[in-house]
Amino acid sequence: MSERIVFPRWKDEPEVGQKLAEMERTAERHARLASSDKPEDKSEARKTWKKLSDGYWDLLFAILDAQTASFPEHLTFDETERLFIDFGFLEGITPVHKDFDAARILASRAGADVFPYLAFSDYIAECWAAITGKPCPAPVAGLSAEERIQEMESRLEALQARRDEELSRILGARSTPTPPEKLAEEMDQNLFSAVRVAMRVKEFREAKDEVKQKLSQERFRYVEAERAMSLQISSACKDSEDPLGLPESESFMEVHDSTKRMARKIVYARMDLEKTARRLQRITSGCVEFSDLMKRRELKNMVMKKREYIAVPAKTARCDASLLCPSDAAPTLWANTASLMDAMCDQDMDMFAVPRVRMYGVPRIILIPGQGLGTYDWLDHSLLLPAFPSVSAEKSLSYALGTFRWDSDEDRHLKNPYEHIRENRSKSILDMAASFYKDYFLWMTKEKKGYRILPRETHKAFLQMFATREEE
Description:
Layout: H1 14-34, H2 39-68, H3 79-87, H4 102-107, E1 117-119, H5 120-132, H6 145-171, H7 180-199, H8 202-205, H9 209-237, H10 246-287, H11 292-310, H12 312-317, H13 334-347, H14 355-360, E2 364-372, E3 375-377, E4 382-389, H15 393-407, H16 415-419, H17 429-445, H18 456-465
């Protein structure tokens, strides 16, 4: 076996070495068969590729067995192991795209967002921490919850400063009932109270009457300042001598709306701290009486459960179900994925108002090896995004969100209107869901940008389903 494909930490582990040797021999045989012109060899090549792909799980569990044998406090993975676990890449064994840049993809991290981001190796390390009752290590794919909140708070402050500056510039020289500085101050000071009351967060619902009254009064001051600002902006647009241009006013209102969206994301991220702690504690409590061997087996059980859902993205896209690095696609960068997801959730913020989010928090995003289109794991409340998305990263993300929207629609706010569309009435449940994912993709990527793509009846149904509504 070539030394270049041995994981440095486990070169003396017989099980890891054996699995690597088997994969190397299978890869060599596959290469010979795939290059043959004989029809029977082509068929055998497909079977060999399937065997090589199955070797991903055998090697993964060999690595986990080797690392957990000493019962470490945390699971850690070096760069070679991360390339294999997160991208299915083994030098000398797996194919690779010409644009596959190992250093670049390992250095990429998701930015601050309402969604927590985990690589598949992060997920495994988190499972081990929960099983053993240890604090979760910081993810390599994204930021910790505290880091995300801090970064989003900084971005909110920058947005508010920009909004306040623009408001003073637009209205400062005009005669207004309330000075723009006063309006900005009221909105800055009372933004979070307004968001908490509108979202009816737990701290508001369960607060004492005097606290509820205080929060409600602060929300009232915010709403009144916002209303006064809108009236003054509207008046400035109608000014006969120096009218404010429509593009300028729309640009300003977009900045203002961004402050509200960012505050809402921060509130969700803060609430997730408690929900995440409860989720991990439930796992810890369930394993507290386990022996060390049973805890090691539980880690394998948790990874095996995730294995079933990891197969879904490829099935949805009808592409190769292998988790090994493909030769015809480059992996998406986590930073780009987070940027796209942030923009998409801004277009559908009501996704966070569904009962599952109120119960379990914002779903985590786990970046998994393999190809396909994103999906939602109901059991683990997580969005699964393939490292090698089919068609485009945008389509993969929208399919993940579409699956989440459909599966979490417990009040049938979406299902009832969609089922009544004429062409959907005879579809099975599975066909209905698949149709919704496709239409949701077009809605998010085309219709929300002003392009009419969906049929008339479907377009009207989506307008009804995704009309702006207050949080329950």
